Amino acid sequence: MKMVKKANSRSEFSFNSNLLNSKRSQSQIIGSVLLILLVLISAMIIMAFVVPFVKNKLSGTECLDVIDKFQIKNNPTYTCYDLSSTNMNVQVHVGDVQNLTKGFQINVEFGGSSKAVSVFPGTTDDVIMYEGSSDIELPGKNEERTYVISGIDSLPDSISVYPILKDDKSCEVSDVLNNVVNCLG
């Protein structure tokens, strides 16, 4: 004869209620909840450090868009040192970055020292346009302008150009010219 078991017998119900009320099952639930909380708190602590770090690193990506767009043209007529007037002529070519930059900085290294000048539209100290105007113009899209920098005491060792973004942030060097020549007489 086969024994048939009742589905909701009284003994099964008391067994299940004893299991739910036992200290062993409660400690397993508490342990699971604590593990979940530990994971959540660890994730929040990691995110508190990672998110600002990534935001800081991504904020400098504007420079990547302009870094190769500023070039010093190696033209002996327009990029040269004028020995008679101690002026340095620098011709700068600018690509399509008008909406990203507000100007650039030219750094001239000579005789163990250097001179940095910022070139912005309008009047800038120690810089004039090649034709003699003190009203500084920036090159347009894919254009060049030649600037005359005063106060250079000897033939420069190198000239470098640094883009300056709209928010006044100066980017890394965009171009360097190491072979500076005297202007043709």
What does this entry look like structurally?
The chain has helices spanning 10-21, 23-58, 62-66; strands at 70-72, 80-82, 87-94, 101-110, 113-119, 127-129, 143-150, 158-165, 175-177. It has 185 residues and is α+β, with helices and mostly antiparallel strands. The strands form two sheets. Strands 1, 2, 3, 6 and 7 form a five-stranded antiparallel sheet that branches. The model has no long low-confidence stretch (mean pLDDT 85).
Supply database-style keywords:
Immunoglobulin-like; five-stranded antiparallel sheet; four-stranded antiparallel sheet; single chain; about 180 residues; alpha+beta
Q: What is the first-to-last residue Cα distance? A: 124 Å
Number of helices: 3
The H-and-E topology, N to C, reads as HHHEEEEEEEEE
If you consult CATH, what is the topology of the largest domain?
A: Immunoglobulin-like
Backbone structural class: alpha+beta
Give the low-pLDDT segments.
none
Biggest β-sheet description: 5 strands, antiparallel
Q: Considering DSSP H and I runs of 4 or more, what fraction of the residues is helical?
A: 25-40%
Rg on CA atoms, Å = 35 Å
CATH superfamily of the largest domain: Immunoglobulins
User: What is the count of distinct domains?
Assistant: 2
What would the principal axes of the Cα set say about the shape? Answer: rod-shaped
CATH architecture of the largest domain: Sandwich
Strand content: 25-35%
Average pLDDT rating: 85
Number of E-type strands: 9
CATH class of the largest domain reads Mainly Beta
